[in-house]
Amino acid sequence: MKSGGLRLPLIFIGLFSFCDFCFRSVLLYGFHSIEAACLGLVAFAHGDNLTVTCLRIKFNIGIGLFVVPLLLVIALAVLGFNTFICIGSGLVAAYVLGIFAGTSGSVQSLLDDIVYVGFEGAGAWVVIMMMWVAAFGGVMQKMDAFAPLASFVVKMSKRVRGLLTWNACLCILGNACLADEMAQIVTIGPVIKQITEENVEGSEEAMYKLALRNATFGDAMGVFGSQLIPWHVYLGFYVGIAAGVYPLVEITNMDFLKYNFMAYIAVGSLLILTFTGLDRFVPLFALPSEPEVRLKKTA
Questions:
Q1: How far is CA 29 from the centre of its chain?
Q2: Do residues 61 and 25 make contact, with C-beta atoms less than 8 angstroms apart?
Q3: What domain range includes position 264?
Q4: Residue 231: per-residue pLDDT
Q5: In this structure, are 171 and 294 located in the same domain?
Q6: What is the mean predicted confidence (pLDDT) over 77-93?
Q7: How far is 270 from 73, CA to CA, in rounded Å?
Q8: Which of 117, 122, 187, 226 could form a disulfide with 232 if both were Cys (CB 3.0 to 4.6 A apart)?
Q9: Is the pLDDT of residue 177 over 90?
């Protein structure tokens, strides 16, 4: 059959799909959605690909709904619900809203293609990575490979706050070198813990607060610091997800780095508040000051 013979059926199918989509869009998003849909139809009439046109319309109209599962998870977490309840509610809400938006398949496809395959792939990678970083960190610790770096940090520190700020910088450096936040936490975490315990003295309560700040450094510089490293695996993961969800725009690692303001604020504020002592103005975040804690070399 010639391609021209398929043109009329395709037109009817396209118009039917367009009307159906408009009806559902009005129910979900209001009558302003018709304007976006009509603009998409005009683009299709001028030669745009039908799949691309529909994807662009759905993205422009339904972008507001995609935030609902995230807000639901955050709200349940704030209310104190169990972690699995929070995450599960987000998954269910995303699936239900995806049905109305036309982006979700059947329940069986969700379980097979997303839940099973996703958890299987993520679990395999997590197990392998955890085994690798545990072995690597253990070997480095046994070799005392970070002793020169630890000595440099102690030498450069004139006060406890300076020492902790250098600990934060070590976390960022380890994250950049290893390009994996879990590897940084497992490898650099024991190093900054040892630096603090061997070179700072104070009461048990004061030392516990310093340990908490070191743990915060390992977590924040691992997760948020990864967003500031162009070659980090986190950014590669985000780019892959973005390409799968919205393939119409080519997104690179640098796009995430340029506009991830939360990462800049989290990393920068931790460094500044710790070094300057301004953390005392943040409730329950202040570090003990000298002479409550002090460096052993100046004691």
A1: 28
A2: yes
A3: 146-298
A4: 87
A5: yes
A6: 84
A7: 26
A8: 226
A9: no
